[in-house]
Amino acid sequence: MTETNAQVPMYYWGIPDSPLNWCELDYKVSPFICEFYNTISSFVLSMFGVYGLYLLFNSSFTDKSLSHHIKIVSQLGIRAKVTLSYLSLAIIGIGSAFYHATLLYKYQLFDEFPMIITISLFVYCKLTLDQVQDTDSSQYKIFRKILPYLLTGYVVTVAAIITVIRDIPTILQASFGFLVLVCVTLSSQYARSIKMDLRNSNPKKLLAYCVGSMLVAYLCWLVERKLCSDGYVIPGVQLHAIWHVLTGAAAYLWVQYYICINLEKHNYKTKLIYSMGIPSIRVQ
């Protein structure tokens, strides 16, 4: 006897072959999207990246403070780094949406490659905050010359490993987590060197928002992985979708922090502008 269509699961994108299957039930909301809420929330990641690019390129005559801010950021020589950082964040969201919509491994890589590239960019931005000086040690000068090659080698190595070894997702998680830890440690060390308290320091505020968002995001990710039951941990709440939103916010905020410390390092006064609760830095 053959099974009826009602008895056969329907997979619009084919049978999922990703080694990871998240808490959200597959094809529960839509027959065309494997994990509906995880897919939709992925676009929030992209929106944070697009908003960051908007703040970098929208030289509007109606917002003279933003136009002045963009001009100063360009003069500091960091516009290319910031552009790449926000562009890679936007690409993460697109890759994540493809992945969660299908749960196919090829699209999982489309999600994971931009993740490791983006955090490598952040580390590079932080480590190249200062210009190389004639008084710097020869070892430091060599380090700065080879830094792009070291980070590129790290990205390529991780990408090659996760392409070949499909069933050990902790490889990417550990590789990504290591660079996140490096980035947060370096950023925190710099913030502690600022001789102002949190209330009066825009870099410290932005970094606090960033780290707070990342910690809550990680808690959501971890709780869902450990306590998922029948599609939820908390009924009606998809914690992995919250992870997407908060990690997108954290990445956006870190780049704003990077812009802010560059401005203040060059003796520009800064101010925080809040739009729908989302802070952005401006030259005062």
Automatic annotation (TrEMBL):
One of its GO terms (molecular function) is hydrolase activity, acting on carbon-nitrogen (but not peptide) bonds, in linear amides. Pfam families: Ceramidase. InterPro entries: ACER. It is found in: Membrane. One of its GO terms (biological process) is ceramide metabolic process. The keyword Transmembrane helix applies. One of its GO terms (cellular component) is endoplasmic reticulum membrane. Its main location: membrane. It comes from the Eukaryota. Its cofactor is Zn(2+). The chain crosses the membrane at residues 36-57, 78-101, 107-125, 146-165, 171-194, 206-223, 243-261. Zn(2+) binds at residues 100, 240, 244. Ca(2+) binds at residues 22, 24, 35. Keywords: Calcium, Hydrolase, Membrane, Metal-binding, Transmembrane, Transmembrane helix, Zinc. PANTHER family: ALKALINE CERAMIDASE 3, ALKALINE CERAMIDASE DCD3B-RELATED. This is Alkaline dihydroceramidase.
